[in-house]
Design goal:
Layout: E1 3-5, E2 12-14, E3 16-19, H1 30-42, E4 47-49, H2 58-70, E5 78-83, H3 99-113, E6 118-123, H4 132-144, E7 148-154, H5 158-171, E8 178-180, H6 189-194, H7 196-200, E9 205-208, H8 237-244, H9 249-265, H10 269-278, E10 285-288, H11 293-299, H12 302-305, H13 311-321
Parallel strand pairs: 3-4, 3-10, 4-5, 5-6, 6-7, 7-8, 8-9, 9-10
Antiparallel strand pairs: 1-2
């Protein structure tokens, strides 16, 4: 496993990490979750991503029970939670980024994950109804209290991040140090262009999600949605439409071409897509979302495969993917 610096911090994070979205507490059972977490940890993965909204908090309960049972040294792994969508209610103050919800959601995440502190605590989305200073001060106070070590954001636009940095600078608060954007061959603009200046100053790490474009870059949707796919799960109709609708036809055609490039490079298509993400020096870690141990172990091969992505291969990949990327 390779370890990278998380943005402007001294924190070392594994280049590949493991996330619980749509798997823990929903798509897979607890025994499989345990196998996945142990396989990831044994392979050198030290970052486990979670959020209050994943399976309405159940994903954190499942992960917390496994972490407790595993008995790993707390210093040997990083765990995160994200706040915004809420977990067990929809009353006025049970969602968003108000001081009340940020603090209460942190306490709830600590209980579910059975840990004394969160290594990373991210604002899952921007909240237009809450002043950014209020959110930043709440995060700062949680850090001072030792309940959070670093805070950051997820799917924030550059102007929103600049506003957060400015507020923290003016009031001498701990600033955000990490952003969690979607990043893959078909979703590139925010990381490669919009956020680029922030990587230089004041500095920003990235924990990217959906590196396989929710499975599109595995090639399994080239002929439609197979039986047993997570796209058939209730509540994910929006994702099914996004990946298999008329608008996706150009991308599916690109996936077929990328498959040929992968074959010529001597790697599988998923490994090609993951290795491509790893080649970006702005990527601190690539979050994997495997639902089977065999799938996770295969994806771990992206570390070594990155060496096979020569400048010529990268150029061929861009020629196919860039025209249909956003």
């Amino acid at each position: 496993m390779q370890y990278r610096q998380l943005g402007p911090t001294g924190l070392k994070i594994s280049a590949l990490s493991f996330g619980a979205w749509v798997t823990f507490g929903k798509q897979i059972g607890d025994p499989v979750a345990k196998q996945l977490l142990n396989a990831a940890y044994d392979a050198g993965i030290n970052f486990f991503d979670n959020a209050e909204a994943y399976a309405d908090g159940r994903a954190e309960v499942v992960m917390g029970a496994i972490l407790k049972q595993a008995g790993w040294r707390r210093s040997s792994y990083l765990v995160s939670s994200k706040v915004f969508f809420g977990s067990d209610g929809d009353k006025p103050n049970e969602t968003g980024l108000s001081r009340k919800h940020v603090v209460e959601a942190c306490e709830a995440a600590l209980r579910r994950l059975q840990v004394d502190y969160l290594d990373l605590y991210l604002c899952h989305r921007p909240d237009p109804e809450t002043p950014v200073l209020e959110t930043a001060r709440a995060m700062h106070d949680l850090i001072v209290q030792g309940k959070v070590l670093y805070w950051g954001t997820s799917e924030w636009e550059a102007p929103q991040l600049r506003a957060a940095f400015d507020a923290c600078s003016r009031h001498n608060l701990h600033p955000p140090v990490v952003e969690q954007p979607q990043y893959n061959l078909f979703h590139r603009v925010r990381v490669e262009r919009e956020l680029a200046p922030l990587f230089e100053s004041p500095g920003l790490g990235t924990t990217i999600w959906s590196p396989l474009a929710s499975g599109l870059l595995t090639g399994k949707y080239n002929q439609g949605v197979p039986a047993g796919s997570r796209l058939n799960f209730p509540g994910l109709e929006w994702l099914r439409d996004q990946l298999t609708g008329t608008a996706a036809e150009a991308r599916i055609a690109a996936v077929r071409k990328l498959g040929k490039i992968a074959n010529e490079a001597g790697v599988s298509l998923p490994i090609l897509a993951l290795a491509w993400c790893l080649k970006n020096p702005r990527v601190s870690t690539v979050i994997l979302g495997a639902s089977k141990v065999e799938q996770l172990r295969e994806n771990l091969g992206a570390i070594d495969a990155a060496e096979k992505l020569t400048p010529e291969v990268m150029k061929a990949i861009d020629a196919v993917s860039a025209p249909v990327a956003d």
